[in-house]
Amino acid sequence: MRSVLEAQFDSHTRTSGHSYTKYNKWETIEAWIKKVASENPDLISQSTIGTTFEGRNMYLLKAVRTYGQEIHMTQLLDELDFYVLPVVNIDGYVYTWTKSRMWRKTRSTRAGSSCVGVDPNRNFNAGWCEVGASRSPCSDTYCGPAAESEKETKALADFIRKNLSSIKAYFTIHSYSQMMLYPYSYDYKLPENNEE
């Protein structure tokens, strides 16, 4: 099991930077974000939607336009904006490299509790603290003291609310379990516009 987990990680001997085939350290991801935006200013813009509990910037990439050769991608980018937030729970992700490989919560602290973090997937104001969530701060599925109590969750939710009228689809990768959940993990009811 250990060898399988270690094989997923960024090699310390690799010097070529970001890899799409392994988990990269946050510093490598952050450098890639800045590099891809600076090397492709006609295609990609970079912004920050917030900061994490530990003060890290939450970078957002936006594919703005293209003059590419591939006609279908060019048509898509001419008609739609694509936003990519490479990592939401940056502090928790960094912690997986330094202390606990399977850590999934944020790194926030609460007065009166020795337990650290909130499960950001269960902290959104959508079925908050219902199915599959815990109210115990020490649980891996702790939903937090309130919906959007975490800086990371609040920043992403605020971005979505601000752009809700123009958002056509929202796709997230739940990398802890390496699953894609549709439509939601707390409810099996399909959205009204599912056929679209």
UniProtKB/TrEMBL annotation:
Pfam families: Peptidase_M14
Keywords from the UniProt entry: Carboxypeptidase, Hydrolase, Metal-binding, Metalloprotease, Protease, Signal, Zinc
A biological-process GO annotation: proteolysis
Every Peptidase M14 domain range: 1-196
Keyword GTP-binding belongs to the record: no
GO molecular function: metallocarboxypeptidase activity; zinc ion binding
Family the UniProt entry places it in: Belongs to the peptidase M14 family.
Entry protein name: Peptidase M14 domain-containing protein
Organism for this UniProt entry: Neotoma lepida
